């Protein structure tokens, strides 16, 4: 199996090293793992692409490249430049430093990379490690992802339905904020919503009097609805959420027919 990996934390991020080991396990002895990751951190860029400017692509080693762009840019570079003659069988994005459950999924560069792969017709998964008091100070805070990631990916690949839809499936995987031995299992879960917790902006004044804004995140340990992704993560389970890039609110289509 040929696997392309990327992330949004940058080419030097520890989570990418974890993903490389996961990918090598999944690819097997005769497989290949190729890396095209952002040269600098790209957290929160979502599905952004560098449509109005070019970006540099640098080779750092065998099968290893850094791109001065977003995760979606990296996937485009991987599919259409780096691996253009032999496209990958699978794209993996992560392992993100922090969760991409609930509304975080909408901002996530990690999922932006997976989404772009799905739009290009390649099976894709985004992997993220939830942090909390039980794992943030571990010597290896990504150990839940490291120990459970490869088997989970193989299980999804074996179980995923045939998908010929225009908007292909991709998977949002979030590992709970516990040590590897504390993982209770896996749950297929819908995307949740953290009520009362959201991103915000905070103004500060620099020493020279200029105004700057910092984006602040919300409380990540507010449980979402029962059975949804963040609730399962906080209960100790790995969540797997199948997604598509189709943003249509299908529940509203019929109700709006009257305005035609």
Automatic annotation (TrEMBL):
<keyword id="KW-0378">Hydrolase</keyword>
<dbReference type="GO" id="GO:0005737">
    <property type="term" value="C:cytoplasm"/>
</dbReference>
<feature type="binding site">
    <location>
        <position position="43"/>
    </location>
    <ligand>
        <name>a divalent metal cation</name>
    </ligand>
</feature>
<feature type="domain" description="Survival protein SurE-like phosphatase/nucleotidase">
    <location>
        <begin position="3"/>
        <end position="195"/>
    </location>
</feature>
<dbReference type="GO" id="GO:0008254">
    <property type="term" value="F:3'-nucleotidase activity"/>
</dbReference>
<keyword id="KW-0963">Cytoplasm</keyword>
<dbReference type="Pfam" id="PF01975">
    <property type="entry name" value="SurE"/>
</dbReference>
<feature type="binding site">
    <location>
        <position position="8"/>
    </location>
    <ligand>
        <name>a divalent metal cation</name>
    </ligand>
</feature>
<dbReference type="GO" id="GO:0000166">
    <property type="term" value="F:nucleotide binding"/>
</dbReference>
<dbReference type="InterPro" id="IPR002828">
    <property type="entry name" value="SurE-like_Pase/nucleotidase"/>
</dbReference>
<comment type="similarity">
    <text>Belongs to the SurE nucleotidase family.</text>
</comment>
<comment type="function">
    <text>Nucleotidase that shows phosphatase activity on nucleoside 5'-monophosphates.</text>
</comment>
<dbReference type="GO" id="GO:0004309">
    <property type="term" value="F:exopolyphosphatase activity"/>
</dbReference>
<dbReference type="InterPro" id="IPR030048">
    <property type="entry name" value="SurE"/>
</dbReference>
<keyword id="KW-0547">Nucleotide-binding</keyword>
<dbReference type="GO" id="GO:0046872">
    <property type="term" value="F:metal ion binding"/>
</dbReference>
<protein>
    <recommendedName>
        <fullName>5'-nucleotidase SurE</fullName>
        <ecNumber>3.1.3.5</ecNumber>
    </recommendedName>
</protein>
<keyword id="KW-0479">Metal-binding</keyword>
<feature type="binding site">
    <location>
        <position position="96"/>
    </location>
    <ligand>
        <name>a divalent metal cation</name>
    </ligand>
</feature>
<dbReference type="GO" id="GO:0008253">
    <property type="term" value="F:5'-nucleotidase activity"/>
</dbReference>
<dbReference type="InterPro" id="IPR036523">
    <property type="entry name" value="SurE-like_sf"/>
</dbReference>
<feature type="binding site">
    <location>
        <position position="9"/>
    </location>
    <ligand>
        <name>a divalent metal cation</name>
    </ligand>
</feature>
